[in-house]
From TrEMBL:
Pfam families cross-referenced by the UniProt entry: Lipase_GDSL
Family, similarity comment: Belongs to the 'GDSL' lipolytic enzyme family.
Source species: Ilex paraguariensis
Keyword Metal-binding: no
Name of the protein in question: GDSL esterase/lipase
Keywords: Signal
PANTHER family for this protein: GDSL ESTERASE/LIPASE EXL3, GDSL ESTERASE_LIPASE
CDD domains: SGNH_plant_lipase_like (cd01837)
Length: 360
């Protein structure tokens, strides 16, 4: 019995890691068999622009990308609101599991209700763990995202029936990806929180906000949670331009590493105290490796984005601008967000290691 419990726990953790970031050269058939074995039903997403498929299209904010050249490599070249040239990691997650090729935004007026049982994203570009971060951009705070989640739960049960709906929600994988905006929009660039907190104090404040959010999720029935760490945001073209430097900003990156360390540690505590399955995803290391060794990943440009000059344009300031000739050679799509290829590379590395662990 003990061995069976261990096997179940390991398999669930493997699935959580699998689902965090997407798919490439993996055994998709094997993946889907494991997902079915452990009743993985859907993927439900909270966060910022890294996982927002277009919820901000319905909001009065400039933090959106529902216009060209965004979506240049999406299906039918549609500008859906994803701040990339194509799909996000969460879209690849859904595809790898065989649910659907994309994860829909909860606020998408064209979403098919029948698809909601396979997952949905409540994420909002510009959001963060700190509600002030979202309020500065008039986007969805995490508390508002969770409020919409409550409505979603009711809808799922209405569509699938009370018992089946509860099963779908209990066996879903929940993903939380945010934090960069808290530091860039709300601390270092606009200085809102820097007037109140030292950077270490702000890290701690954000961690307390994260813990509050995870506890709220648990109360709402979340039992399998993936939390994505910060990427090396000191390497974004925008930061390099503002700092007038060709190198990654070491101070910003050290903050990302420090925050990630605290995030991982607190998540481990929450996992134990709440009795939930939880996993931390180290995106920092994945992106850093691609920046340090671009040839290995097929990149020739990691210092600027593909849109416009690639140095400062993102979201509204990228609207209607020309793009680079070969997006597959670029790590960044605009001055702040990754290309579809980078999202796939993150997925590749995560899934490869997980599949190796699974097969061993």
């Amino acid at each position: 019995m003990a061995m069976l419990v261990i096997r179940v726990v390991v398999a669930v953790v493997v699935l959580v890691l699998l689902l965090a970031l997407g798919s490439r050269a993996v055994d998709v058939h094997q993946l889907r068999l494991v997902a079915a074995k452990y009743n993985v039903t859907s993927i439900i997403v909270f966060g910022d622009s890294s996982v927002d498929p277009g919820n901000n299209n319905l909001l009065d904010t400039n933090a959106k990308g529902n216009f060209p050249p965004y979506g240049e490599d999406f299906f039918n070249h549609r500008s859906t609101g994803r701040l990339s040239n194509g799909r996000l990691a969460t879209d690849f997650i859904a595809e790898a599991l065989g649910y659907t090729t994309i994860i829909q935004g909860y606020l998408d007026p064209h979403k098919r209700k029948a698809d909601l049982v396979h997952g949905v994203s409540f994420a909002s570009a510009g959001s963060g763990y700190d509600d002030l971060t979202a309020n500065l951009r008039n986007v969805l705070t995490i508390s508002k995202q969770l409020e919409y989640f409550k409505h979603y739960k009711t809808q799922v049960k209405q569509m699938a029936g009370e018992q089946k709906g509860e099963e779908i929600l209990q066996n879903a994988i929940y993903l939380l990806s945010m934090g960069t905006n808290d530091f860039l929009q709300n601390y270092f660039l606009e200085l809102n929180r820097s007037e109140t907190f030292t950077v270490e104090q702000y890290e701690d404040y954000l961690i307390s906000c994260m813990a509050r959010d995870v506890k709220a999720m648990y109360t709402l029935g979340v039992r399998r949670l993936v939390v994505v760490g910060l990427a090396p945001f000191g390497c974004t073209p925008l930061i390099k331009t503002l700092r007038d430097d060709t190198k990654c900003d070491a101070t910003f990156n050290s903050v990302a590493l420090s925050f990630n360390s605290k995030l991982k540690a607190r998540l481990a505590i929450l996992k134990k105290s709440l009795g939930m399955k939880a996993a931390y995803i180290d995106v920092y290391n994945m992106v850093d490796k691609a920046i340090q060794n671009p040839q290995k990943y097929g990149f020739s440009e990691t210092s600027k984005g593909c849109c416009g000059t690639g140095t400062i344009e993102y979201a509204g300031s990228c609207k209607g601008l020309s793009t680079c000739a070969d997006r597959t050679k670029y790590l960044f799509w605009d001055a702040a967000h990754f290309t579809e290829k980078m999202y796939k590379i993150i997925a590749d590395e995560a899934l490869t290691s997980v599949i190796e662990s699974l097969l061993n």
